[in-house]
Amino acid sequence: LSSRSNHLLIMCTLSNSHLAHHLPAPASHQGKHSVFRIQEPTNMGDSEKEKISWLRPWEWESVSQTIDVEKVERLKKCELLKVVLQECRDNVHNRSQLEDSPVGLRSLRYYQWRGIKPENKNSCVREEHALWSCRAVSLQCGQDLMKVRRCIQEIGPKRALAHPRTAYGRSDDDIDDASDVPCYDLQLNVGRCIKKSSLELEERIKQRKEG
């Protein structure tokens, strides 16, 4: 394959899978051609870092921008879940449900909550989990999110949905003690990853506009 073909192959692979296998540098990128190791975003998986580590700096920037555009597009889809959560909190009559959209259904399937609702009919905890899990997946915080799902599956849906709040958006400085939230520490870690990754994404976008 030509250097350009390999470049396009990498972009397509990164766009479609965050769990792709190791991809070695082609022969054309070895020997007389100098290859630079570049600085990857800190929230990338090891397999992604291995695949892109041999790219030249100008090739990496193109790949990085493609990944960031995809993240932004995914985050836009999460806005629908933000509306669903707000309508739930406002107790809107005939409000939107998670079951009404593909992105909402993905969350219910992820936690295996389809057809399961909190005993408290006014609780919006399912909607909170859905919004934060959508953001986590969009910003490549999936490893931390998987730990939350594993914890939730261990304690069971009844207990997981019994508490009216989640801990994703909380900080260590919060005065209000919410440590009784199921899987509290794991949810905090997801929230930290989302905050860190979103700030890094905003900074990269800002630098591109200024550059």
Structural notes for this entry:
The chain has 8 helices and no strands. It has helices at 3-16, 46-52, 57-89, 102-111, 125-138, 142-155, 157-160, 184-210. Helices cover 58% and strands 0% of the residues. With 211 residues, the protein is mainly α. α3 packs antiparallel against α5 (125-138) and α6 packs antiparallel against α8.
Main attributes of the structure:
211 residues, mainly alpha, globular, disordered N terminus
What's the structural blueprint in terms of helices and strands?
Blueprint: H1 3-16, H2 46-52, H3 57-89, H4 102-111, H5 125-138, H6 142-155, H7 157-160, H8 184-210
Mean pLDDT: 76
| Strand residue content | under 5%
Encode the helix/strand succession as letters.
HHHHHHHH
What percent of residues adopt helix (DSSP H or I)? 55-70%
Number of strands: 0
How many strands, which pairing sense, and closed or not: the largest β-sheet? Answer: none
Sequence stretches where pLDDT stays below 50 over 5 or more residues: 1-42
Number of helices: 8
For the record, give the distance between the C-alpha atoms at the N and C termini, rounded to a whole number: 32 Å
Shape: globular
Which secondary-structure class do the elements indicate? mainly alpha
Report the radius of gyration as a whole number of Å: 20 Å
Give a quick summary of the entry:
The protein is an all-alpha fold. The two termini are 32 Å apart. It has helices spanning 3-16, 46-52, 57-89, 102-111, 125-138, 142-155, 157-160, 184-210.
